[in-house]
Specification:
With 301 residues, the chain is of the alpha/beta class. It contains 10 helices and 9 strands. The chain has 2 domains: 74 residues, no CATH class; 191 residues, no CATH class. The strands form 2 sheets. A 7-stranded mixed β-sheet has the order 1-9-8-2-5-3-4. The protein has a two-stranded antiparallel ribbon with strand order 6-7.
Length: 301
């Protein structure tokens, strides 16, 4: 009991120290924070060697035709971007509405209004590409009656879990526990609350959810299909959030319609559309995808 108490107590102290540092640093202008990113690159990549083996294996398997030199250049660019993503997420703590709308522009949001006027909701799918945290600023670009929601996996540390929930809900985005998503959708529809529910759909399924495999980046890859099942049952719009990094600290995200009548599609058809679009998104500039993720830890039996 005493050991447990000490562990919890020390964890809280550690959290508040980290939070105080991040809260203070977040007031700095983004160009200044990029100096921290440049330093972080040296520490994360050159010193700590954070998941270098995972990144190299993922890149080597995804791009078998690239030379070792080309792969190393891509690797360097990825770690530079990973550190940029980190400081951009810290800056997001205090970013004003005006500032964030200058740094990430959403195009074709009229799709959400169109769905709303026809009495439909929207399932939006995207991936760990670009600064996916900034997608939670989408409420600033949509009809005020439409609720923007995104799935999340609760963290074991409650303090850090609360921290990320507050970060992602700064501009009105509602975070939905992935284990309660069906119940939440049913409640939204029962209450007549129009919504856009965003899924990061390139995550690795758990062992119990390895239901669908398809080629992706030159590898046999399992994909989550729960979002498609929901869309086909509710017949809501399905859109892909096509994100591009314009330059350091600036992004453009275009809303692309995959289907307005999901119930008319064949099983896994929408998943295949998503996989193709996600792959094209990555291939355009591979450095901005999350290569440190253990995406291919499962093998088809």
């Amino acid at each position: 009991m005493w050991r447990r108490f000490c562990f919890v107590y020390m964890s809280k102290i550690g959290f508040y120290i980290v939070y105080a540092v991040l809260w203070t640093i977040a007031w700095l202008p983004l160009p200044v924070l990029y100096l921290f990113s440049d330093l972080g690159y040296l520490i994360v990549y050159k010193v700590a060697r954070y998941r270098v083996k995972v990144v190299r294996q993922n890149m080597r398997n995804s791009f078998p035709n690239k030379t070792v030199t080309e792969l190393r250049q891509l690797e360097h660019r990825f770690y530079h971007y990973l550190c940029d993503y980190g400081v951009e997420s810290i800056w997001y703590l205090h970013a004003s509405k005006h500032a964030i709308t200058q740094h990430i522009v959403f195009d074709n949001c009229e799709v959400f209004t169109e769905a709303y006027r026809t009495g439909k909701d929207v399932i939006a799918v995207f991936g760990h590409y670009g600064n996916w945290e900034w997608v939670s600023s989408l409420p600033l670009h949509t009809h005020p009656d439409i609720t923007i929601e995104t799935l999340y996996r609760p963290l074991k540390n409650r303090d850090f879990d609360d921290f990320f929930l507050k970060l992602r809900s700064r501009f009105g985005c509602v975070c939905v526990d992935k284990k309660r998503v069906l119940r939440h959708i049913l409640q939204d529809k029962k209450d007549g609350r129009p919504f856009v529910l965003a899924f990061i759909a390139d995550q690795t399924p758990s062992v119990n959810n390895l239901h669908y495999w398809t080629p992706f980046l030159n590898q046999d890859t399992p994909f989550l299909t729960g979002w498609e099942t929901i869309a086909r049952k509710t017949n809501d719009y399905v859109v892909f959030l096509d994100t591009h990094r314009v330059k350091r600290g600036y992004y453009h995200c275009r809303v692309e319609v995959l289907s307005t009548e999901p119930k008319e599609t064949a099983e896994f058809e929408l998943t295949e559309q998503y996989v193709w679009r996600m792959e094209q998104n990555i291939l355009e500039n591979p450095a901005y995808w999350l290569w440190s993720h253990k995406r291919w830890k499962h093998q088809r039996s």
